[in-house]
Amino acid sequence: MDSFGSVGGLLIGVLGLAVAAIGLDPTNHYASQIFSLGVAGIVAGGLLVWLGSRKPAKTILTQQYETKSAKSDSVHEAVKYKNLYEGSPVLQRTVNTDGLIIECNQAYVKTFGHIKEEIIGKSLFEHTADQSMEDMRKTFETWKQTGKVSNVEVWFKRKDDSTFPGLISANNIYDDKGRLIGSNTVIRDVSEVYQARKVLDLHERQKIQLEELKKMDAVKEEFYMMVAKECQIPIEPIKRYCEILKDSSGKLNAKQQEAIDEIHYNAARLEQLIHDIVDVQKLNSNRMEFKKEEFNLDEFMNSMVDTCSPMMTEKKIEFVNMTSYKSNITTDKARLKQVFYNLVQNAVDFVPQQNGKIEIGASTKGDSILFYVKDNGIGISEKRKESIFKKFYQVELSFKRKYGGTGFGLVICKGIVENLGGKIWFESKEGEGTTFYFTIPK
Q: Where do the DSSP E strands lie in 20-147?
């Protein structure tokens, strides 16, 4: 539209000049009018040419504003990108095609422990742990061939030579002419994830090991039960024939009688050992049965005197019942008797050959009954007190042959008392004796 106005104005101006020239002829009757018309055409043409070549003020202002705005937006975007790069909590570095670090953010600097000047210009392999060097080379080659790397696990090395696992991802960056100049790399520290994974793996291994141990325990328990059952079969006839032979004592001399007694005693010991093994396995697997009933405690303690008195004969041990509680108690009578029998038998083994004394008793203590078995035996040394209730443990190993026993008795006592809702403990002084205490709820 502007070019058309300029050309039109020029033509009108030329036409005006021609008309004005005709108006200069004095012989023409209308010369003055024609000259005025020509001048008007020149003026009109000149005006059109001026208007056609003139740019609107509004257009000029708009172009200036838009140019300024585009430059402002470009600067703003660059600053925004720089801030995002520097302030990102994720480790970021920019690497050229030769594998040299040309830029990194503050998170990267802080994590690796270097100052920025020590990082820029160095090879990316200097920050790679030895065990991941080959993986990093493959990752770098993959980036150069495909232009992209995504979440590859690599171990990195800090300035202090400590290492940490990270996931590395990279994308290409280009210059203004579209030429590849390097990559922008993002590294995510996955130390916590890796540690959690290790814990999960450990728990899984422990779970498998626990299952294997349970299977082994089941096999072991089955073996113990089988051995116990098979051993009981020959013991019964041995004991029975010993009793028959003892009844015919008139036909045996002193040496033969002693041999029969020895056989009978050891058969009884073997039978007790078998029962102890079975009870320990039942306690370990929570398969021991408990049947509670109400009974008179004073009568029960007197019956324990009758049951245990034969054990006192050989050593001529003084056996005393000091029970002060006469009322009833509700618990498993058979298991309570088993605890007392084991504790008394243990005391019998360790009291002296002369002037031995064992005292039993029961008294009330809050909502429970406090029982005790006291002896004046060899006592327990301080260094062995913590092991008393452990399986297979004997207080004084040097007395093993003399006193016998496997250490099952006290383990069984502890298991029974705790299953009945009570506690068991002892007080002892080496050379002066031992007192075992245990409580049972009323």
A: 91-96, 101-104
Give pTM, 2 decimals: 0.52
Q: Do residues 230 and 287 touch, judged by C-beta distance below 8 A?
A: no
Q: What is the 3-state secondary structure (H, E, C) of 336-366?
A: HHHHHHHHHHHHHHHCCCCCCEEEEEEEEEC
For the record, the structure tokens of 45 come out as: 């043409």
Integer-rounded Cα radius of gyration of the chain: 54
User: Cβ(53)–Cβ(32) under 8 Å?
Assistant: no
- Among candidate residues 171, 189, 207, the one where a domain is terminated: 189
**How confident is the model over 347-381, as pLDDT tens digits?**
998 899 889 999 999 999 999 999 999 999 999 88
**Domain limits for position 226:** 199-283
75, part of any domain = no
Distance CA 171, CA 92 (A): 12
Helix (H) or strand (E) holding 242: helix 191-247
Q: What ranges make up the beta strands (E) of 138-290?
A: 148-157, 163-174, 180-189
Check if the beta carbon of residue 326 is closer than 8 Å to that of residue 298: yes
Which secondary structure element, helix H or strand E, spans residue 125, and what is its range? none
pLDDT in tens, 11-56: 665 566 665 556 555 565 555 665 566 556 666 666 665 666 665 5
Whether residue 234 sits in one domain with residue 331: no
Query: How many angstroms separate the CA atoms of 180 and 176, rounded?
Result: 10
